[in-house]
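Sat 14:20. Reprocessing the chain from the morning session after the first attempt stalled halfway. Input below, unchanged.
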Amino acid sequence: MGVHENGIPQGWLFADELIENSPSRKAGMSSGNEEEARRHGIRLIMDVGLKLKWPANVTIATASVYYHRFYMCHAFQDFPNYLTALGCLFLAGKVEETPKKCRDIALVAKETYSAFLPYQNLVDEIMGIERVLLQTIKFELHVEHPYRYLIRYAKVFELEKMKTREIVQTAWTFANDCHMSTMCIQWEPQIVAIILLSLSLRVSKVENLQWRNYKKEHKYWWDQFVLNLQEEIVVTAGEKVLQSYSNVG
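Finished this time. Tokens:
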């Protein structure tokens, strides 16, 4: 799922070995430092985005995907993460039809991140990195997110209405927090939704789940949406999500 068997990216999805050999790693950055650089950039996207009242499940999510894609093509050593994050926000705002003036983005960013944005004319710098970003992602601007699949897939659970709502809300929170990780460039949004709903069911201690549209050939509830998705993949990916909370510094 997500990549061809030989590890070559399928679209903007990357195998583990490609992420482990990213441009930043090849340029000498350690795994831990790269993960930290990714988190810090996404944190800026979230902080600035929320202050500008951008929706987390649309504009902020799209900016986060752009950011992770960008650093699969460039090294952090060559493009500062905070500036790139602002360029991703600026572009995502226009793509998702929630545009903000570049100077407003710069002003909000300077309020909290001035020490990390030592530019005389930040507006020009943001516009400049946006041009690099557009070329990097080859003007492939449309991004699909897992949120709508969380709602759609959960409708098959044979649970009380309030319990289903709780499961979706927890999975939704996981989806927001997963912007920090590379999950969006490893799995299709449909599979991300399955991983996060399964994790939500697990942490909510739902056992012996029954589901609608059951067929004998379906071993798991998600088989009616994505066939041949192994339970081991779903569980392992969910474990990584939980582990990411303890890794945040």
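The domain at 16-137 is CATH 1.10.472.10 (Cyclin A; domain 1).
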